[in-house]
DNA sequence: GGGTCGATGATATAGTGTTTCACCCGACTG
DNA sequence: CAGTCGGGTGAAACACTATATCATCGACCC
């Protein structure tokens, strides 16, 4: 995520989305979301915990994991499996109730660690087709593409 | 993996592939590969360690992780990130030297845990295209599709 | 013999995630 | 009002996954 203004907007969209879905974005959950959005790159649970401790000294692993579970459940953050880290959804608030997540893919730069979320329809379609050809009913797909980002390639 | 005969064949192909590449498939590495291939589903490193201990009492985490590193490096096994588990490559031995891996995708059944490797060209192509559109040079992609397998859907 | 290199043994430690029990508080109920 | 039920949080311990470090061994070469 980027500028403070962008984060503020994302937080407000998150509040709206939660309100629409009848989910409670409590102060703790909102704070964890804020930390995720404020990180320069996908951030690990224990890094989040460290930052959380400055304002909540009693915080423990379950504190952050429970908040992350909520945020994941409601599509406000995603987990990057290859990094064991979490990143704010770049298109949050556009899901309906009971719609836990949307098709998405990550581009992870090997050089600088920057991670960008994309939502490529052709990729999602190809995946659904490939699964169907194997008689498989696809529900959700993790797509994490590692390589060199445009910025790093330019240097 | 499946039948003992299939495993035997995969092991022999692995030996050939290593010979071609000048890599040493030592007894330890071969045994770990055998354990991975013999598992019913993707198997975790510590589960491998437990099984390994029956014949090598002194085995410790680095024992199995080093063997896995070798097998991963040479494309004989893959890691399933969503499961923190390892699975034998269903198309091993078809890579050239310095070719660490081939495009592949996994279909993971939520019900029974069965995990199948596929190598769908359309998916790989769509991913490369999507990355290129973002100015990104894709090097490797993790694609893990979760859903319901044909067998489970039939019940 | 001495030197080097890759593989393994062995111990300790780091990083990631879960279980469990307790407490609080707001809502609903008799 | 007392009771109770649920979700959210606090707190401690634990389980699971992976790596760092140093020592040892044997093969190969000079
Ligand atoms: Zn998203
Ligand atoms: Zn970069
Ligand atoms: Zn493969
Ligand atoms: Zn199944």
From TrEMBL, chains A, B:
One of its GO terms (molecular function) is transcription cis-regulatory region binding. This is Ferric uptake regulation protein. Transmembrane segments: none annotated. One of its GO terms (cellular component) is cytosol. Keywords: Cytoplasm, DNA-binding, Iron, Metal-binding, Repressor, Transcription, Transcription regulation, Zinc. One of its GO terms (biological process) is regulation of secondary metabolite biosynthetic process. The keyword Transport does not apply. Belongs to the Fur family. Zn(2+) binds at residues 109, 112, 149, 152. Its cofactor is Zn(2+).
